[in-house]
Amino acid sequence: MVATQPPMHLSGHSICPSDPQFVEEKGIRAEDLVIGALESAFQECDEVIGRELEASGQMGGCTALVAVSLQGKLYVANAGDSRAILVRKDEVRPLSSEFTPETERQRIQQLAFVYPELLAGEFTRLEFPRRLKGDDLGQKVLFRDHHMRGWSYKCVEKSDLKYPLIHGQGRQARLLGTLAVSRGLGDHQLRVLDTNIQLKPFLLSVPQVTVLDVDQLELQEEDVVVMATDGLWDVLSNEQVARLVRSFLPGNREDPHRFSELAQMLIHSTQGKDDGLTEEGQVSYDDISVFVIPLHSQGQRSSGH
């Protein structure tokens, strides 16, 4: 990690004199090792969970969101629909992207195209604006497949009347009529209701990793990273969360527990008890986890101040 360029061999030995040149041509940097370590850790964790679930006869799964502060950089790894944002005095920056059946439609459809047996003849991989009915047979309707970002028309066949691989919109979108996420850990034994169709082949445990160069920021005391599960973001936007952060922290600088208290306040604000924070009638009944992480001390440590 301290080398300007990662060695080809971890031992440092060069079997081929041109090894450093090959590494340089690939553009491999120290931060790529952190990204690779996080990706591998998620994958290995998922395998361990799978073995433990099988041994105990249990079922279950979860999404995962991880932040690692290392050598002046913040690495955010996300698999699922949790979210992390950077909140500063004059900036709100997303540090992750959600993975849902909608956002990963093409990947999921591509898998069903290559391995049609995964659908067991019960689902259609094609997407239509709505669930097709018998009266649509023979009509030309809008559709899209794995290779398409846009839409086209096709003549409706009997096979198109099957339940869609991805159905619903927004928060209601479901994979195989079951899951609202397309990445996460676990769910090795999860099957579509009343069938033997497994969801695990469509679920990725590999995270997307975002890198924030903290050393390049002129950090202020109120600069924070907010990490939270989907229950918070279902009712509060990034901007609404940032507004709450900016209104709370400056007036509580002497409180040593202000960041955890802010996290509690964010959760409280999803219960519909605070006027003007959430859209009218929007309340979260989800279980919510929130972390508020100050970056100011991280920047001071990495800079040696």
Automatic annotation (TrEMBL):
Pfam family, one: PP2C
GO molecular function: [pyruvate dehydrogenase (acetyl-transferring)]-phosphatase activity
CDD domains membership: PP2Cc (cd00143)
InterPro entries, sorted: PP2C, PPM-type-like_dom_sf, PPM-type_phosphatase-like_dom
Domain PPM-type phosphatase: 1-295
Gene3D superfamilies referenced in this protein's UniProt entry, alphabetically: PPM-type phosphatase domain (3.60.40.10)
GO cellular component, one term: mitochondrion
Name this polypeptide is given: Protein phosphatase 1m-like
Source organism of the structure: Lynx pardinus
Species classification: Eukaryota, Metazoa, Chordata, Craniata, Vertebrata
